[in-house]
Write a structure and sequence with these properties.
Number of strands: 7
Order of helices and strands: HEEEEEEEHH
Strand content: 15-25%
Distance between the termini: 23 Å
Strand order of the largest sheet: 1-2-3-6-7
CATH class: Alpha Beta
Bound molecules: nickel (II) ion
CATH superfamily: Peptide deformylase
Radius of gyration: 16 Å
Helix content: 10-25%
Shape: globular
CATH topology: Peptide Deformylase
Largest sheet: 5 strands, antiparallel
Structural class: alpha+beta
CATH architecture: Alpha-Beta Complex
Number of helices: 3
Number of domains: 1
């Protein structure tokens, strides 16, 4: 296993739509293991493949590092498809390993229904609410090239701009490996 450098805002791969995979081979399983190691090393609760510079449609979520979610099992979603979202929305403060030291309120649907393949290539379906729904929607966004700044009002984005420029310039202090320069 290996800890991989995390791509940050400004890296083009984060703006690319990822591609569904046809076959879950050893290379894919290796990538997923590395994603878990990379995410845990950075104390993250979710990570999408393009955050480690892969264009595969995969993300992982593990809330169990948080006190209130200790019993929530980690989930690996391959080729996820959002089937339904609630009209009800929730506002919660979010961060992202690809946006170091940036936190802001983001409005998202409160409930999400998603189908995906697990690592045994079985189709699974999950309906989630609360923090799990939030993280799934955040990670799914990564797979379609979207990030937090795309989900806030223009005036909020404007306020974040200085921080975003610092992130692009690698001026933010980060406690985990990130890509050294713009990818
Ligand atoms: Ni993120």
């Amino acid at each position: 296993m290996a800890i991989l450098p995390i791509t940050v805002f400004g890296d083009r791969v984060l703006r690319q739509k990822t591609n569904p995979i046809n076959q879950i081979d050893d290379q894919t399983i290796g990538l997923i293991r590395n994603m878990y190691e990379t995410m845990h090393n950075a104390y993250g609760i979710g990570l999408a493949a393009n955050q480690v510079a892969s264009t595969k449609s995969i993300f992982i979520v593990d809330l169990s590092v948080m006190d209130d979610y200790k019993n929530v099992k980690p989930v690996t979603m391959i080729n996820p498809v959002i089937l339904e979202v609630s009209e009800e929305v929730e506002i919660m403060e979010e961060g992202c390993l690809s946006l170091p030291n940036l936190r802001t309120d983001v409005e998202r649907p409160a409930i999400v229904k998603v189908k995906y393949l697990d690592t045994d290539e079985n189709e699974q379906m999950l309906e989630a609410d609360d923090l799990l729904a939030r993280v799934i929607l955040h990670e799914y966004d990564h797979l379609i090239g979207k990030m937090i700044p795309d989900r806030v009002e223009p005036k909020v984005k404007k306020k974040l701009q200085k921080k975003l420029n610092n992130i692009i310039a690698r001026k933010e202090k980060v406690d985990y490996p990130i890509t050294e320069r713009k990818l």
